Amino acid sequence: MRDDQVYSRHLQRQVKLSILNTPVPADKSVLNLLILNDGQEMEKLRMKAIVDSLFKAGAIQPLVVVGIHAGDRMQEFGVAGQADYEGRGSRAGYYEAFIDDELYPFIKKKAGVRKFKSIAIAGCSLGGLSSLDMAWDHADKIDKVGSFSGSFWWRDKSADDSSYSDEKNRILYAKIKSSRKRPKLQYWLYAGGAEENADRDKDGVIDVLDDTQDMVSLLKEKKNVAANDVVFVTDPTGQHDWRWWSQQMPAFLVWAFGR
Prior knowledge:
The chain is an alpha/beta fold. It has one domain (2-257): Alpha/Beta hydrolase fold, catalytic domain (Rossmann fold), CATH 3.40.50. It has helices at residues 42-45, 47-56, 73-76, 92-111, 126-137, 166-169, 171-178, 207-221, 242-257; strands spanning 2-8, 13-21, 32-36, 63-68, 119-124, 144-148, 186-192, 230-235. Helix 2 (47-56) runs parallel beside helix 9. The radius of gyration is 18 Å and the shape is globular.
């Protein structure tokens, strides 16, 4: 794994990157790309060990992983164009523009490719929310998205407000539900059963599971993908922590880049 950096005029800062790759094939047209939010946590995710092991076993195709080190996560992660009810996520649009306009050309040039065979984006928690929003908005470049315990609760009104509605006030859910877009994406979503105690609707199911299951159902309802293009994985003992997300990473990588 090596470090790099690129200046972003959208974010007005130097963005640190952690990059790792499998052996580069002579034919670079078979090279795939994974963009990973919270790249500063790649060691906690055990990305290098997992990628090396899977490639050595012949389980995944040639791959470049680019981990973006987070800046102000609470402002740069979120849903582009709409902050949450506490004003968080106000710079999510700039973060998306950085990936689309600046990071992607930078990585293509570094890798020496005109086009990657496939591109996926993934993240955990707020990074998972950001990943799905980015993929939805930029399906012209992105093929697959992985969201580990995505913060799909992200809302424009406090859940304590008497007029709060899951249907209307969860920002990304409402955005996708009202969208006429039909992006050709594949989705891999994970949530653990022991991540929290919060249960807004008092149905005995914690919010992260409810919110993720609702997102899975919505994506299938949009009918722009086959049912098997939306994968939902859960672990009843899974906690909201990098160690648990790391345990799911091999399955995600094989799903996204399997031979």
